[in-house]
Every structure is written in structure tokens, then in C-alpha cells.
Amino acid sequence: MNYPFPMTATEMHEANTRDGFHFADEVLVFHQPGSPQAESIATLRSHLLAQHIGHGRRSLAICAADGGAGNSFLATNLATAFAMAGVNTLLIDGNMRQPALQEWVVTDESGKGLCEYLDNPELRLSDCIQNAVLPNLSVLYAGQPTNHVPELIAGHRFAEAMDDCMRSYDLTIVDTPPLNQASDVRRIAATLRYALVVARKDASSVSDMRRLCDELRADRAKVIGSFLNV
Q1: I need a surface site. Which of 27, 63, 97, 158 has the fewest CB within 10 A?
Q2: 88-117: string of b/e by CB count within 10 Å (b at 16+)?
């Protein structure tokens, strides 16, 4: 794919978000584009552009073995970094039990999210997606938290929604709940087909990460790599 109009770090930092939205300070590629952590995410983006998107893959589940690894940090920063590169990106909060994306891409709007879409066949997916939060970046929030997530993501409506997203956007990134809190991550990653595993330095267990990778592969999700948060 060719993305002819990427934004520089300065242009992204100066870009106006859509009215009613703003980014948390921890979205470093937006607020601190030259920082070491932002540069590490830019390096990851470059690798994925060449080795993932460059091979025609249009989806990525961000997965972790346990809470605190930094799933939402990486998902939000990586999606923003791809938007900076001119990649038409959709960021989805797949943690429908304990949604977190609204703390990273903050909004005062109370629109419908993924939960409402999956639970209501009358809703259209386009009615739930917040388009052009930034140039090339759209967001689908989780919506109101629910405990019957397994039923929602087991149905054909979830798989069809993800397929629609992958057709409509150059890249769909889904922030998933950690494995030690819910098995939802396995179904989501299997549907997306590709997963990136996140760990935190001096906190995440190698054995837990190995178990996560084994379970994702058992569900036929391809683990394309890992990222270490500091």
C-alpha cells in the first residue's frame, strides 16, 4: 500500500482533534513525539508497515497475559502513530467488561459503542464509530460495560463486524482485556487473526506470556511479535 500524505511528528502534535475529543497526556506520539518511548513506538510502526501491513494484513489484536502490562497505552499510541503515517486506522476498545479507551481518547460524548452494536441488531456499525477523531484515525469505544461478553463475541455479528472494519480501514487495532481477567482475548484475537503480545519490564512473567502465546496459537491466531513497556 502507498500512503502519500503522512503527517510529520510536528504536524500530528499540532493537529486539531475533532470537537469533543482530546488525547490523554500518556498518548506520547501525540504530545511528546520526540520522546524515547514515542520513538520506540515509531520503530514498531515502521516494522509493522513493512512486515505486516505491507503483506496485506489489515488487523491486529493487542494482547497481554495480565493487567498492568500497558495494553491500552500501546494500542492508543500505535494507532495514533499509524494515523500519523497516513494509514487509515480504526482503534477499537475490545475490553467490554472494563473499558479503558475513553481514558486515553477522552470524550464528553455518550454515543453507542461495541457492546450496544453487538446487543442490538437494529444498530448499524457506522452509527457507533467515531470517525476522524484525528486525520486518519477513527475510534470505536466499548460502550456500557457488560458481563455477558462471551455471548456477544461468540455470535456471527461480532465476526461480521470485524470483517467490515477490516474491509473499510487500512488497519483495525483492537485493545483486548488481559488473559488473567477474561478469556475474551482468545476469541477476539482468533477473529482478528493476528496478535501482538505486550509485557511490562520487571513485572510480566515469562511463563505467563508463553502461556498466552500458546493459547492464542491454539486458537489459530498468529502471534507476530511482542512489545516491552518500561
Answers
A1: 97
A2: bbbbbbbbbeebbbbebbebeeeebbbbbb
Is it the case that residue 10 has pLDDT exceeding 70?
A: no
The answer to whether residue 111 is domain-embedded is yes
pTM exceeding the 0.90 threshold for the entire prediction: yes
**Residue 108 lies in domain:** 26-229
Residue 158's CATH number? 3.40.50.300
Q: Within 10 A of 209 (CB to CB), how many other CB atoms are there?
A: 21
Helix H or strand E encompassing 51: helix 36-51
Does residue 167 belong to any structural domain of this protein? yes
Alpha-carbon distance of 197 to 204, in angstroms, equals 11
Amino acid letter for position 109: E
Domains held by the chain: number: 1
Helix (H) or strand (E) holding 45: helix 36-51
Residue written as cell 486525520? 135
Gap between the Cα atoms of 202 and 4, Å rounded = 40
Q: Residue 62, SS3? A: strand
Residue 16 lies in a domain: no
Evaluate whether residue 219 is within a structural domain: yes
pLDDT of residue 50: 94
